[in-house]
Amino acid sequence: MDIIYLHEVRARTLIGWYDWERVAPQVVELDLEIGIPSARACASDDLVDTIDYDAVVKHIRKVLEERHFLLLEALAEHIAQLIMQDFGAPWAKVSVTKLGILHEVGRVGVTIERGHRA
Question: Which pLDDT value is given to residue 30?
């Protein structure tokens, strides 16, 4: 399977279990691996034969601005489902990271994998 990857994508969303986390949107960092439905783009050199990663990032940012999540797990699941349903990816691996949210901890996050990897 061919995979598109996007690392260190920054997006803003309301996220957190604790009330103090939900006062204002936080920046989360996303690492995405997206299975491409076919290898046609390798031969055609045409964007229509692959997943437009610019469109993926814009869509995720728009959705996250409008949604509130309590848990990183729920946020990661939502992004994985969005990638597979809205962009036709057969497989997605999503890592979501909160930056500097805990004292003396630089990053806190979760990684999930959904779909079928060929």
Answer: 98
